[in-house]
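Order emerges. For instance:

***
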Amino acid sequence: MDRLEAMSILVAAAEAGSLSAAGRRLGAPLPTVSRKVAELEAHLKTPLLVRSARGLTLTDAGTAFVSASRRILEAVNEAERAASGEYSAPRGELVITAPVVFGRLHVLPVVTEFLAAFPEIGVRLTLSDRNVHLVDDHIDLAVRIGALPDSTMIATRVGAVRRVVCASPAWLDAHGTPKTPADLADRACITFDVLGSATEWDFAVPGAKSAQSVRVSSRLSVNTAEAAIDAAVAGAGVTRVLSYQVARAVAEDRLRIVLAPFEFPPMPVSLLHAPGMTPLKLRAFRDFAAPRLRERLGAVTAALAPR
C-alpha cells in the first residue's frame, strides 16, 4: 500500500465530503478511492470514515489521522519543492488570500505587477472575508486586517485602516451633521452586518477606557460594503465601513466622514505567512508587495485627511 497516496485520498475525501467528490478532485475512479481508504483502515485496524446518506464524517481516529496526514503531506511537498530548486530560484505557484474589497482594490493590482516582473511564478488569488487557516488550507500568504492573535506566524505590517462613519454631502445638508454618536439614534443608518450588529454601533470615548454602544436606526441592512457605500452616496443615510473602501468617494466629495473623534484606533494591515524555510517565490512576493501596499495605504490616508 502506498501510504502517501492513501493519505492524500483520505484528506481529499474529508475536505470534499464524499469519496466520489474526492475521486473527481484527484482524477481517480470511485472504486479505487474506496479501496484505498479501506486498505488504510485495515492497515490501521480502525475505522476513519463513517459513511451515511448525508455524506462522510470522520471518526475521532480519522480526525486525528487527517490532521497528521496534512502535516506529513505538506512536509513532503516542501521537500520536493526544495529538491526541485524552488528555494534557489523564484518559480512555481503562490497561493494568496485577501479580504474581498481590499483584495480587489489593492492586492490584485500589485499581483498583476508582480506577474509581469516574475514570469516564472504563477499566483492563485482567493478573495474571501473569512480568515482561512494558512497551513490546513495550503495558503502561502494571507493579507489580514485587524489585530493578529499571538502565534508563530510571520507578520509584515504594511499599514493601517480606520473604521469610519460617513454620509453624502446632500444627506448631511438635509439632516444635519452628527456631532456625537448619540446623534445617530434618530438618523437613518445603513448597516453592514459584517462589521457588527445591525442595531448597535460601538464607538471610542475620548479619555475613557470603555467603548460607547449606540443603538442605531437601521433603515437599510446590506451584506456587502459596496452596497452600503452605494446607498450612502445615493443619500439613503449614514453608513460605517472601512476607510480604504470609501477613500475614492471621500476624495471626490461624494461622501464625507463624520464622528472622526470617536473612532477606534486604526487597525493594522499585515502580510502573514508560516514560519520556517521561506521559498524564494514567497520572499519575492512579500518584498515586492510590502512597499507597494504601504504606498497605496499611504495614499488612502492622504485622501481621507481633513481639508
Q: What stands out?
A: The chain has three domains: 3-83, 92-157+269-304, 163-262. Residues 163-262 form a domain with the D-Maltodextrin-Binding Protein; domain 2 fold (CATH 3.40.190.10). Residues 185 and 216 are 5 Å apart (CA to CA).
